[in-house]
Each structure stands twice: as C-alpha cells, then as structure tokens.
Amino acid sequence: MANFDGPGFSMVDKSWIQTKAIDIEPSTDISPYLSRILEDCVWNGNRAIVFDVYWDVESVNTKSERRLSSVKLSTKNLCLFLRLPNQFTDNLKDLYRFFASKFVTFVGVQIEEDLVLLKENHGIVIRSYLEIGKLAAVARGTPIVEFLGARELAHKILSCDMSRLDSIQSKWDEAGADDRLEAAAIEGWLIYNVYDQLQQ
Amino acid sequence: MANFDGPGFSMVDKSWIQTKAIDIEPSTDISPYLSRILEDCVWNGNRAIVFDVYWDVESVNTKSERRLSSVKLSTKNLCLFLRLPNQFTDNLKDLYRFFASKFVTFVGVQIEEDLVLLKENHGIVIRSYLEIGKLAAVARGTPIVEFLGARELAHKILSCDMSRLDSIQSKWDEAGADDRLEAAAIEGWLIYNVYDQLQQ
Amino acid sequence: MANFDGPGFSMVDKSWIQTKAIDIEPSTDISPYLSRILEDCVWNGNRAIVFDVYWDVESVNTKSERRLSSVKLSTKNLCLFLRLPNQFTDNLKDLYRFFASKFVTFVGVQIEEDLVLLKENHGIVIRSYLEIGKLAAVARGTPIVEFLGARELAHKILSCDMSRLDSIQSKWDEAGADDRLEAAAIEGWLIYNVYDQLQQ
Amino acid sequence: MANFDGPGFSMVDKSWIQTKAIDIEPSTDISPYLSRILEDCVWNGNRAIVFDVYWDVESVNTKSERRLSSVKLSTKNLCLFLRLPNQFTDNLKDLYRFFASKFVTFVGVQIEEDLVLLKENHGIVIRSYLEIGKLAAVARGTPIVEFLGARELAHKILSCDMSRLDSIQSKWDEAGADDRLEAAAIEGWLIYNVYDQLQQ
Amino acid sequence: MANFDGPGFSMVDKSWIQTKAIDIEPSTDISPYLSRILEDCVWNGNRAIVFDVYWDVESVNTKSERRLSSVKLSTKNLCLFLRLPNQFTDNLKDLYRFFASKFVTFVGVQIEEDLVLLKENHGIVIRSYLEIGKLAAVARGTPIVEFLGARELAHKILSCDMSRLDSIQSKWDEAGADDRLEAAAIEGWLIYNVYDQLQQ
Amino acid sequence: MANFDGPGFSMVDKSWIQTKAIDIEPSTDISPYLSRILEDCVWNGNRAIVFDVYWDVESVNTKSERRLSSVKLSTKNLCLFLRLPNQFTDNLKDLYRFFASKFVTFVGVQIEEDLVLLKENHGIVIRSYLEIGKLAAVARGTPIVEFLGARELAHKILSCDMSRLDSIQSKWDEAGADDRLEAAAIEGWLIYNVYDQLQQ
C-alpha cells in the first residue's frame, strides 16, 4: 500500500494530516497513492475529495497559455500533491481516470474556470464535482461566500484560527517547500471541514 | 427470451438482482437482452431504466480523448452490463436505438457531462432522461444532493446499509469481476429505489 | 376530402380514434391528410396537434447520425402516421410547411432534442410548440413529470388504465403493424387529454 | 398619403379594419404605407405594431431553407400585408429600417424562432419587440398562454367570438385571397387587443 | 470649452436642453464635446449619460448589414448628436474610448441588440451600461415596461405630456432637421428623467 | 521589500493610501510590488484586492481592437498602478500568475466585459473574482447598483464626500499625472470600503 511518507502536520483541532508530494516522472506509478486516497475517502470521510489544480503560464506574443502543472487531492487524513511533467506521460492516464470516478464527489473552490481549462487544454473531465462556494452561498443564504477564496470561505463557515496559513501565504515567495506543503494541507483540511459542516 | 444467466445478488432488503455481463463482439446479438430489460421495466417498474456509462481514456500528446467503453442498464430485477468493442460494429445500433426509446425514462446520476460526450463523440442521443440528483435536490429542498455521486445520493435519500458497496469500492483496484458486477448491481438498485421514493 | 381509412381504435373512455398510415413516395399527395388534421384540430379540439417524431440511426465509424424516419400527428379524433422516404422528395415540403403553421400549437413530450435535430439535420422549424411535460411540472407543482415519457406523464395526470399500451410496448419487437399503430394512437390520445386537462 | 384601398372588415366589436395587400416589385414604393402605419400607431394606438412574418420553404437534398415571403403589420385601424419578391430589391431597405424603428414596439406571437431566422437569413433586426405570449403568461400567472398561437392566446385573454376566424382557417387550402386577408386582419386585431388589455 | 451652439429646446417642465449636431469629418475634433458632456454629467447629473445609436442598412443579395451611422448622447442639460462618416477615421477613437469610460453609466432603451452589433461590427465596447427598461420592470414590478420603446417607457414612469414628440414622430419622413433634433433631445431628456426617478 | 515611493494621498476618513506607478519595461521586476500587495492584503485586509484594467483602442478599418494598457491594484493601504508595454515581455508572466492567485479575491466594478477581453485577447484568467455591483444589488435589495460605475456604487453604499474625485474626473483631459493617480487611489479605496461594508 502506498506510503504517505512526507511530512505530517497538526491542524488547529489537533487532527493530523499526512502528506505526500510527488514529482511525476515517466516511470512513477501514482496509482497506489490514488487508491489510498480513494480508500481513505470511502472509509473515513463522506466520499468527498477536496482538490485544487495549479497552472503554469506559457506565453506566445501577447497571448498566454495555461498548462496543468500540479494537482492537490485532500481527504480527511491525507493530502497528496502531484507535480506534473511538461510532457504527457502514459501514467497520467491514471490521474485522468481518477478524476472521472463516480464513486466520490470532487470538491473545489472557484473551480469553474479550472474545469473549462482542464477540458479544453487537456481533455480532462471531472465527472462528479461540487463548487462548494456556490453551495455554501445557497445553504447559508449569504451570497458573498460564493465569491471567496478557500481561506475566506472557511473563515466565514468555520471561524477557526487562520494565523498559520496567513503567515505562510503572506510571505509566499520566500516560503520553503515544506511550508508550502503545509499551506496546501491546511487549505485542503479547511475545505474538507466546510463540506462536512454543510452536510449537516 | 434472453437469459440473464450471470450471477445473482441479494440486496439489503432481500430483493434479488439477476445480472448479465456481455463483451460485445461483431456477432453478438444484444437485442434480446435489451428487449428483456424493456419488458421488465414496463411490467415491474415505473418505466425507469437506471443507466451508467463508462469511458476509456485515450491520449494524444497533452490532450486526452474519451471513448465509450461500457454501459450499465438496471431495472427492478435486472442488471445488464455491456462492454463495448473498440471499433463500431453494426449491432451497436440496437443499443443506440434503445437509448432513443421514448417508452421509458433513463435515470442517471451526474450524467450531464456524459450526455454531452455521448452526443459529441458517438452521436448517441438519450431521448428521455432524468438527472436524478437535480430532481432530488428540488423535491427534498436539499441543494447538496444535486452534487453527490450515486452512493452518497442514495445514502441521503434511503439511509440503508452501504457496507457491502463500500467494501468493494474502497479496494476497487483489487476487486474481482464478480465483485465489480455486484457493486454495479447495488448502485443500480440504489438509484432505482431513490427514483421510486421520489415518485411518491 | 382525405379518407382516414386505416384501422380505428376504441380508447378506454369509449372515444374512437381513426388512423391512417402512409408510406410517402414521390407521388404521394399528403396535403389532404394534413388539411383534414388541421380542420379537425380547429373545429373539435383546442387547436392542439400532438406530434412525435422518430429517427433512424445511421452510422459512420464510431459516430452515428440521425435521419427523420416517421412523424405522428394526433388530434381529438384522428391519428396520422407518416413514414418518410430516405431521400428528400418535393411533397415533403407540405409537411415542413405544416410544422411551421401558426394556427395551432404542436404538443410533444421530451421534444427538446427532437427540435434541435429537426432544425440541424433537416432545416425543419416547428413554429408554435409546447413541451407538455415542462408545463405540467409547473402547472401541477410536481417537478418529476417534466422528465417522464408520454405514458408515465399521462399516468400521473390522467390515472387511467394503461394495460393495453403496456401490453403492446412490453413486447414491442414482436408487435405487428396494427398493434404498433394502436400504441401510437393511444399515446397520441393520452397526451391530447393531458393537454386538455392542463388547459382547465 | 398612402391609401389603404383593399377590402375593409368589420370585427366582432363593430370596429373596422382597413387593409392593403401589396406584391412588392422593384418599382413599388412601400414607404408611404409604412409611414401611414407608423402615424396610425402613434396617434391612435399605444405605439404597438402587431406583426407576423411568413416563410417559404426551399429545399436542398435532405435539408430545407427558409426565405421570408410575407410580412403582416397591424395597428388599431389598419392591416398591411406585404408579399416580398424572391430577390432582394432596394426598396426592401425601407422595410428593414422600419423594423429597426425605436419609436414603436413590435408585438408578435411565438416570434422567437422568427427573430433568429430574420437575423440569420436576412440580417433583419427588430429593435424593440415583445413576445406577447410570454408577457401574458407572467402578467396573468397562467404559464400555458406562453405556448399558444395567436388565436388561442386571444381566446384565453379576450374570450370573444372566434367563429369567423375558425371558419376560414379550418378550410385554409380552399380559402380565397380576401378570406385569407380577413383572417390576417382578425388575427392582427386580436393580438392588438390582447396587448391593449395587458397594458391596463 | 466646446460650444453647444445648436438650437436649444424647452422641455415640458421648462428645463432647457442645449444641442449640438456634428457631421464628423477626418479633421473634426470631437473630444471637447465629449469632455463637456462628461463634465456636465459629473457635476449636474448622477453620472448617467443617456445614449442611443442609429444604424444604416446596407445590403448584399438577400442579406442586410448594419453600419453605425449616428450616436446620440444626452445629459441633464446637453444633447450631442454625432453623424459618423462611412469610413473609419482616426478621430472616432475618441468616441470609442468615451464609450469605455468607467466614470459614468451609459443608459439606454432596448440596447441589447445594439451592444452586440457595436461589438461585432465595430469592436466598440460600452463598459458600464444600463438597460433601463429591464431595471424599471424590476423596480416597479411591471414586466411590460421592459419591452417598451423610449417614449412609452417614459409615458409609464413619468406620465408627462408627449404631444410635441408624438407630433414630430408621427410625421417623421416629413420632419425637418431641427424637428428631428428636438425629438432626439426630448427622448434623451425623458430617459434621463426616468433614470432619475428610478434612483429615488 | 518593494518600496511604494510614489505620492501618498489622504482619504476623507483620514486614512492614507501609499501609491506606486510603474512603466513596465523588459528589465522591470514587478514581483516585489505584487508580493507587497499580497502581503498587505493578507495581513491588513480581508484578502480582497480591488482591481481595474484599462484598454487601449487600436483600429483596423471599421473595426477596433483592445489591448490591455494598464492595471490598477488596490488594498487597504496601497495602490499599485502598472502601465504595460505594447509588446509582451517575459516579466508580465508575474502579473498573469498573480491574477491566477487563489489566496485572494479580486474585486472589481463592471468587470464582466473585462474578464472576457482579458481571456480572449491576452489569455489572462482571474481565478477568484467578484463583480461587486452584482453582489451589492443582491445584498442590499437595490437592483440599480448592479449597473453603476465605481463612484456611484460607492456613493450609494458609503454616502461619503466625493468632491475631490468629482473635481478630478470632471476635468479629466486636463488632469495631471498625480491627480489621475489620486483619482485611481480614491476609486480603489472606495471599492475596498464598499466590499468591507458588504462583508458585515
């Protein structure tokens, strides 16, 4: 079984997130990590996987293009951070198939534009997804939360201490790899808990 | 009359689902199976056929393409699982015509993207369909159910024991053919019952 | 005046539907039949013509195409079933013009996809149409009826005996020409009565 | 000043509609008639011009095309019926400009498809228009009227005697030129009165 | 400072509108007039500029094209009427930039189609605009006003004497240049006052 | 750390906005300024960055094109004004990436058209944005504020003294560089405070 042997981080409620960051190369087998994420989501969570995608900007003259550079997947206990290669490699199919899974709901913040780009630029289709800000706006009757980023959305719904996340993100350019991974884990955990809260 | 001679599975309410999995080859006549599904749906059900489609990922450079690989059709008592060949064969027309039937309503979960792909990639049009999550969200006044996968949607509406399904899906990569067929039958049965419930 | 000299069928309320099925050939003059439908609809009905269209599936490699193969037109007393030729023939213009009539409202079930295909594939525009399921959903406050086929929609609104229709449709592949025509007449009559009911 | 020297017709409320039918030829000057319509609409009406457009079906293989063949313009006292030539002639610009007028609101029934075709096929844009069925549906709280043709819409709102119109339209193929003009005048007058009623 | 030295007109409430009509030639500097409009709108009004655009119809075979021929800009005290040349001239950039201003809201009636044509045919984007009929419909709860032209919309909201405008517009083809300018000024003034009323 | 060494301006509530205007050249490193904006927004604000973009009009025949010429970014204490070069330079990628940030919500007025142009003309995607006028319209129940420019929107929500802004904008063509920068700072500050108000 895949080992999430990256650093672990303690959240403000003392829960623990185990992380794994992978630079995907042609020979990397990511399927065990995806299976472990799936398993954790089925057994411990509510079949929700919080995800976020990151784009690299490439430019041609006055135009810029976007290429999927990283993917973050979070469950109750795990956070997987995948850095994608510049060229398509065959093992990425595992990721593409994972996104098409109907077993789980992929939960994201401000993902509308991402979903369009994923399909247009890479042909990736996320089958079962939830724009959680829109749902929160309806469920709570507060239209503004539809337009917030992950941190502010969580702040509105969970009202928990955000100082660690703020501290890392305010000095993002100077942050080290582990700090950035911690910020990713915190954001994933926050949205996971927002989703959990909205379910009740 | 077509014989559903695959394994049968007992559901949590002791009802019985008879299955049939077919690898479609050029010489396979699928029409008797489709006729039997239709007949079962007309006589025993409420003219609803629960369906799900599965896609294979093919890739060209940084882009991926999707090809319809399997179709699942479920009624009250039957579950038909069709694996499609890579190349179009003439007998698939029977399936395409079946999807265009106006006698029944095809019921699915998170099917919006599927319907687009079916039309764009294969020219298949499902005439009379129902995105059951959307309906459940309106009928129950709980917006979140629109965004759930089959299992969570059923969990919210039916509150029945899901441990067998969870057990199979959490170890999907290691599951055998019969276990996967059982999971397919359970999911079909769950959605069938959600639909039934929403009708009342 | 055109003679509807096909078989007549008795409905469950003892009303009588006179039918006519025509295989359109280049020399067939369909206009007298369309005129008679129009006249019946103006004098006896509420200017509603229930219609249904049927498609033939043609395939090219992994793609399929649809070609209009038949059209059903129903009024209070009449049911006209037109089988169209493979090639466009000049007399079909009468049908195309008939669909563009503004004297009447064309009433159908689950016709959204049909209307798109009629325009895209054949340039046919139905000027004044009504998707009756959507209307029924609004008028009755029961969202589910928007998604039902003709039989189930009628079942929800009219609650009349459907055994004859079920009997024919459950064994569709084995049904004879007259049985199929009777099923067509019954479905037309059912939707006509749903429309009538919703008007009150 | 343009002379509406076609037949005049008495409506069921004893009001009088003066008509003019014109076959437009390259030398025909239609602007005086349009000016008179405009003047009547400004002084006697509520700046509403009821319009209807008619299409000719032309076919190429399995596809059909539509070409604007006639236009009907109705005010409180006048009904102008213009038959257009097959080829574009310069004097049609007067009609195109008339449609773009912002002085008045053009009122029609089931015109959505017409507006698209007018723009796509002929580049004609009606600047200020009103789909009266949609408005009536909202104003009266009866969703069904959105989907009705002119006669049934008027029937629902005005409840006046329609026997003369029914008599002509039920035998449309056998109707003479004057009868058809009378039907056009009656339909125009009906919609004009529906609009008037909805204003109050 | 630009001089609005065209005729001035007295409105029904005794307010005074000073006008300027300009035939734009390659050497015409329109920017001082636009600056004066902007200044008037900032100091005396509520940052609203009422605008209207006029199109010339050009035809190719059965199709017609539209070319922006004139623009009307109205504030509380001023009405500027610009007639544009057939060919693009460099000084028109001042107008294009003016339309993109974010200092003010451009207010129009039935402008949806205009905005599309401005962008498609001339690449002009009005940044901050208001379709006042739609707003009035919502604000007053009277759906019909969304579909009215400028005069009728103003009539519904302001109920002031329209006889001068009616008198000019009913005989539009015979109206002289000054009468037409007066009608333009009156319409601009009416909409300006409708906007003012809706603000309160 | 980047130094905002442009002029500082006092707002009507005595708060102070420090500004920086940069003409971007190929060798300019804008990332420290963007980092400082981000940091200020994380620590002092509510993770909102108010932005505005400005376009240059270029024309080809009767058509005009738009090119992004400047960008304004405002936080609680800072206002950064970037003038972009005609040609794409590599350092602009920093700005493009900044716009794609998910840490913050980009807040703008009447930005719908801007967002489309940013994507179409330059491939720039703002990931997390808020059209504040729309939100204010919903939150306050006053539909008109959706359509207002920055100054009028702020006027409706904040009711503070606008005379300095009015004074500069009414004489815009004659305004000097510092006055224009002050107007930019005031507008940014106004919208920042509108957002702040709507949050409560």
TrEMBL record, chains A, B, C, D, E, F:
Keywords: Cytoplasm, Hydrolase, Nuclease, RNA-mediated gene silencing. GO terms for biological process: positive regulation of miRNA metabolic process; regulatory ncRNA-mediated gene silencing. One of its GO terms (cellular component) is cytoplasm. Pfam families: DNA_pol_A_exo1. It is found in: Cytoplasm. It catalyses: Exonucleolytic cleavage in the 3'- to 5'-direction to yield nucleoside 5'-phosphates. The keyword Oxidoreductase does not apply. It is an enzyme of class 3 (hydrolase). The keyword Cytoplasm applies. Its EC number is 3.1.13.1. It comes from the Eukaryota. InterPro entries: 3'-5'_exonuclease_dom, 3-5_Exonuclease_domain, RNaseH-like_sf, RNaseH_sf. Belongs to the RICE family. 3'-to-5' exoribonuclease (RNase) specifically targeting single-stranded RNAs. Triggers miRNA accumulation in RNA-induced silencing complex (RISC), composed of miRNAs and AGO proteins, by degrading uridylated cleavage fragments. Required during plant growth and development. Homohexamer with DnaQ-like exonuclease fold in a ring-shaped structure with a central cavity. Component of AGO1 and AGO10-centered RNA-induced silencing complexes (RISC). Interacts with and acts as a cofactor of AGO1 and AGO10. This is exoribonuclease II. It comes from Brassica napus (Rape).
